[in-house]
Amino acid sequence: MAQPWKKKTCYWMKAMLLALWFSGIHVLADAAAAVSKEQNQLRFSKEGQFKILQVADMHFGDGKSTPCQDVLPNQMRGCSDLNTSAFIHRMIQAEKPHLIVFTGDNIFGFDAKDAVASLNAAFAPALSSNIPWAAVLGNHDQESTLSREGVMKYIVGMKHSLSQLNPPGVNIIDGFGNYNLEVSGVEGSSLHNKSVLNLYFLDSGITPRFPLSLAMAGSNPLSNFGFSALLRSFGHNSVHLPLPFLMQRAYMSNPEGQKSAAPGLAYFHIPLPESASFDSSNFTGVKQEGISSASVNSGFFTTMVEAGDVKAAFTGHDHLNDFCGELLGIHLCYAGGFGYHAYGKAGWARRARVVLATLEEREKGGWGEVKSIKTWKRLDDKHLTVIDAQVLWSKTSAGKLLLKYLLGHTLALVFLACYSGEQSALEHLRSVFHIILSASVSSNCLILMDHSVVSRGNSMVF
């Protein structure tokens, strides 16, 4: 039986994501707010594309006076934070993204004498590009002259920033920088006023030991952390609600009602424990260091599986990892280290990840819903070399992929239930997969657990 404190911990990010879904409905219903933010509305280009540049772990300090780390001897002279800025400029010019996402450790607080000055310098390439951008916090952003809340508030107020402090209408939530952005269809198309791609941004906290910002709550990391009150407001059975339909109600209603939820992408700093499920046989990219995730599994990956719309989650934190691996239809992707003041590996180029979502072109002309989501990385070398291009999700393969996992990976589902450490994990799985899976799978899970074939916290590769 799960201990009460562990059971609470398992709900932290479920409550967070649930809050984002509910706040999404709130925003959709608030016409006045939608009109006032029209100038910041994200939408697909007239070519039916939406491109995101991910910048992970800039570790910006004081600019020219802050030296590079882990570069070749012939690169050391004159190498500084300015190399990081130059790399961002090159990436913007090469890729021309529609949105830039900074996934934490944007500044390295201990080496930033003035947090405001460092934030201004770190984000300067995005500001000067006039491209919308969004950011989440890492574990180092608050180590200078601003608190964690102060850093996020400052980011929210910066030019072209679409970042938000927390979901509107939710007064008690842990951390800062938990929000969602919606990407509308092509201007003038039938999906012009519908969000066809949803982006989720979450605060993964300051320490990998406890997820989110639990460690900030004092000597007892589980006291007063906010999400328990949030859960009480929704009721403990909130996780059984049809989450995709809460956020996607407008997308699936007339006119142009769609049959399924719009795809979603999640961005946060510290990776999930499930990232340790992969080896070189089942991911694209490289793994050169351990997975620095929370030691207590939050159950957030289970929540993403339940929600059904999230196709990929993008993180940083472990600078020497840049791989993408797929688990239960969701890709877990590292960006790889970007910043020159961050630790790295001499001779291993700094890099950035790009994501491209493409709409379906209809036979009679015009653009429909998202057809595919692809990704690749670029290296900060002479040619900005493109590596590891791959398809993360496509509309045509989604059904086949889901069926493959549901019918062919019973042990994987068992592992997910047990690994999450939740007493109610089995019920969550039943609520998600009841349409295709019969009671026999649940029975198998119970039998396997009774015989200790699968144990909590055990790592399995499948």
Explain the overall architecture:
Its main location: secreted. With 462 residues, the protein is an alpha/beta fold. It folds into two domains: 4-397, Metallo-dependent phosphatases (Purple Acid Phosphatase, chain A, domain 2); 409-462, no CATH class. Helix content is 30%, strand content 18%. The protein contains 15 helices and 14 strands. The chain has an eight-stranded mixed sheet with strand order 1-5-6-7-9-11-10-8. Helix 2 (12-29) packs across helix 9 (227-234), helix 13 packs across helix 14 and helix 13 (410-419) packs across helix 15 (439-450). The model is unreliable at 1-13, 21-38, 209-246 and 434-462 (pLDDT under 50).
At the fourth level of CATH, the homologous superfamily of the largest domain is: Metallo-dependent phosphatases
Global mean pLDDT? 76
Output the structural class: alpha/beta
Largest sheet: 8 strands, mixed
> Which fold name fills CATH's third level, the topology of the largest domain?
Purple Acid Phosphatase, chain A, domain 2
Record field, number of beta strands = 14
> What is the overall shape?
globular
CATH architecture of the largest domain: 4-Layer Sandwich
SS strand fraction: 15-25%
In the sheet with the most strands, the strands line up as 1-5-6-7-9-11-10-8
Order of helices and strands: HHHEEHHEHHEHEEHHEEHEEEEEEHHHH
Q: How many discrete domains?
A: 2
Radius of gyration: 21 Å
